[in-house]
Amino acid sequence: MPHDHQDHDHDHSGMSPSGHPYREDQDRTRSYWQTMEIAARELMIEKGVITADEVAAQIDAMDARSPARGAAIVARAWLDPEFRKLLLVDAPAASTELGIDIGPLNLIAVENTDKVHNVVVCTLCSCYPRDLLGLPPDWYKSRAYRTRAVREPRRVLAEFGVEVPQDVTVRVHDSTADMRYIVIPARPGGTDGMDEAALATLVTRDSMIGVGQARQPG
Amino acid sequence: MPTPDPLAPGARVRVRTMMPPGHVRTPAYLRGHVGRVERVLGPFGNPEQKAYGHTGDRLPLYRVRFAMADIWPTSEAPSDTLDAEIYAHWLEPL
């Protein structure tokens, strides 16, 4: 138990009561572009182009998007073969049919099968289907993921706990331009008779990026 | 008879090796490599113009599929694939 100190001979200055080092209040300096963003935003508010409430509302709307939207689409595709077919040829139309507004998002759905495992990356920046999955995780934006996912995807997947058998093709999708991608993970066994809402709870964010599998029930 | 589209799905293409300055959306690691058109998308505004505040010309966008063995001298699994979206002016039909 690293925090359960018996001897108190050593120096605790600069440490919290639980033995963690204190961090500075501002542990990173503000970058040039952060300063520019603040300046532009404040100017636009001052000049009445936008209001502070509108900025806050937009941030709320962005934060409200979560992987639950993508999970609902996957669960429907598992249950409804016609919907699955539509999703694979015209993902925006399928999303609209489900009442999910993905805005101007150009979406492609790719399906994992016993022959193909799909995984998504954006080597140039951090393109991500935010309308369906919310904000991207930090690792998705890291140079390590972005460079390695196209160079050694099987090793990267193994580090995420996904061992892809040699007879299964790994298909990497680099979202280099206008399209965004969602992976339809394979439906786990032992899920017969489960309804759509229950199935959706098995669909993780990582499984829709392709670095995970859907959860087993129970 | 209409001329067949040299960039129709299935067409073999090489990514041009040019290195223009500015904002481009063709990754350097794919330049010079050969793949096949998987599907045709768009048209979308050319990001190379949009990045500088211009209205982008509407261009078709191609999803090109590469074999890992054709991109990397040593690859974990040569028949694994990589798909990327590339605009027509970056593609040379073979």
From TrEMBL, chain A:
Fe(3+) binds at C122, C125, S126, C127. It is an enzyme of class 4 (lyase). Keywords: Iron, Lyase, Metal-binding. GO terms for molecular function: nitrile hydratase activity; transition metal ion binding. It catalyses: an aliphatic primary amide = an aliphatic nitrile + H2O. Its EC number is 4.2.1.84. Pfam families: NHase_alpha. Residues 1-28 are annotated as: Disordered. Residues 1-13 have a biased composition (Basic and acidic residues). Residues 33-212 form the Nitrile hydratase alpha/Thiocyanate hydrolase gamma domain. InterPro entries: CN_Hdrase_a/SCN_Hdrase_g_sf, CN_Hdrtase_a/SCN_Hdrlase_g, CN_Hdrtase_asu/SCN_Hdrlase_gsu, Nitrile_hydratase_asu. NCBIfam families: nitrile_alph. Belongs to the nitrile hydratase subunit alpha family. This is nitrile hydratase. It comes from Jannaschia helgolandensis. The lineage of its organism: Bacteria, Pseudomonadati, Pseudomonadota, Alphaproteobacteria, Rhodobacterales.
From TrEMBL, chain B:
Residues 6-93 form the Nitrile hydratase beta subunit domain. It holds the Pfam family NHase_beta_C. This is Nitrile hydratase.
